[in-house]
Amino acid sequence: MRERLTRLATFPASRRGKWVALGIWILLLVASAPFAARFESAQENRPSSFLPGGAESVETLQLTEEFPSGEVSPAIIVYRRDGGLTPTDRATIAADRAEIDARPLEGAAPTGPTSISADGTAAIVAVPITAGGDSELLIDNVDAIRDVVGTGGDGIEVAVTGPAGFTTDAVKIFDTINGTLLLATIGIVFVLLILIYRSPIFWVLPLAAVLFAEFVVRALGYGIASSGVVVNGQTSGILLVLVFGAGTDYALLLVSRYREELRQHEDRHDAMAFALRRSGSAIVASAGTNVAALLCLIAAEVNGTQGLGPVGAMGIAVAMVAILTALPALLTIAGRRAFWPFIPRYGSEVVEQRGAFRRLGDGISRGPRRVWIGAGAVLVIMCVGLVTLDTDLTQADDFRNDVESVEGQDILAAAFPAGAVAPTTVVVVDPTREADVRRALEADPR
Question: Is this prediction's pTM over 0.85?
Fold first, then answer.
């Protein structure tokens, strides 16, 4: 049994197996293409995806969707002038309301009445938008409103914020985050491979194997999201980094062993077979640990974090398979010349280096027990702060750069009391208790 597993594990290193393994991956890429392209469309970036699944607010959102009005996300237009709104400003606000109401905006209700702050410096206008979970419809409405009101001028500040504004800005960022992350990740991997192997050619092979994995992962991610698992833009971004990070790590382990074996074996296929036997178990153990850790996220309460568990575990597993099958095939096809100009020749000796990492390794080997106990103690001490950890994050902290919804929220907070544009929705399941609930709310001084 063990011999059969060994032959299976080293199959991509054989003369015929390398072409079979590469052919299978090419077929996977072709079959995955239609589904990988739909990965973003299957993501759910609604507010509930960033909240605990059992939270009362999420249950309320789900109940409100059953009403004819559906889930309403108001876009809040805020106007502010430091010295106080002038008659001209008030006329501009009235004109903006009239133009918004005159536009045929699907899902947008007529604008609400203008509310002026107590100090007379600011005004807000709410535009209720019912998008029914259609982020594109929500974005179109908010963009149309922003086109009408502009950005102000002549001393008056104008911005569109509120739930619809925040959701629009978040979705726009998530739509571009994968491209930015992909370029940044590829750039980092490229630099690392160039620095480590000092070859203008070699870096292409590990990167190609990881890209194979990333493409297939996107297709599988679409399937997981379509099955009901919550996958949002945040999960998608983390998944990309996971696949590239783990894939590159596993590739370095395999290639390091392969390069050593090329000096011991004249046939590159034999060298790769030995490399797979020597490093394969370490790669599988590392991937298994990461998969098990990610699956623990299934117990998380937040929907998006819970969805990251199976999706991330799947990404790590696919990256491992790609490095143990696609990369050996690519390396054996390319041969020793892939390492040019520092080609590992058969029978050549490795020049022993006495760098900082070698000295560190020698020091650890002389007293491993002392090192792991000391390192563990330091980590425990550093974790003490988690007991009182409070990130104190707000919705505005979701963005690194300035966006209009955050600017509008800052303008609004300077003139209106907290919660002025965030009404609480109370769903009364039993219609006979509506009057009692209304009286209780009216009696609450808060």
Answer: no
